[in-house]
Amino acid sequence: MKRPLRMILLSLLACSLAVPVCAAENSAAGTQTPPPAAPQAAAAPDQKTSVAAAAQQPMRIGHVDLARIAAESETGKAGQTQFAVLKKKLQGQLESKRKQLEKQKAAIEAKLKTLTPPQREAKAKEFQKKVEEFQKFGMNAEKELQAKQEEFSAGLFKAIEQASADLGKTKGLALVVVKRELLYLGSGVDAQDLTDEVIKKIDRK
After folding, report:
1. Least CB-packed of 14, 36, 60, 135 within 10 Å?
2. CB atoms within 10 A of CB 156
3. What is the pTM of this model?
4. Could you count the other beta carbons within 10 Å of the beta carbon of residue 51?
5. C-alpha to C-alpha distance for 65 and 75, rounded to whole angstroms
């Protein structure tokens, strides 16, 4: 009786030890545990520093005051002087023609009572023709002044544009704009006034 009992106990012990092993094997066969994920490579310290520095660096732009350049630069002053000389000349010619018309009108009115109707009509047509010539001269003078002003403005702006581009490249600016177009500047923008430097640059040329 003792021997069979001992054998039974050993058998039960063996089974109790074997069950966890079998269960573990069955669990491993049924569900496979995924392998551990590979660790992600951390960003290099230098790369982090450069990215942060780029994010904090403000946008650099330049602006110029066109009115100041036209008024203070030697180039602008010279253009304004030429325009003023031409304007004075044309105004003098216009004034001279106007005075001539007034004299002719006064002479016609003085003789009006002594003229026959056909003579009055002829004088009126003659005077009207001179008035039209005077008006045409005034229109042409205005066009000439406007053309001169546009020519001067275009030349000056081209010089300003070239000087601004040169300064922008030298200083590493993102863009250069006209000052009157700056309605708002955020804290992340570094704006530089290039007006004085542009004046020196265009006068040097």
Report:
1. 36
2. 20
3. 0.63
4. 11
5. 15
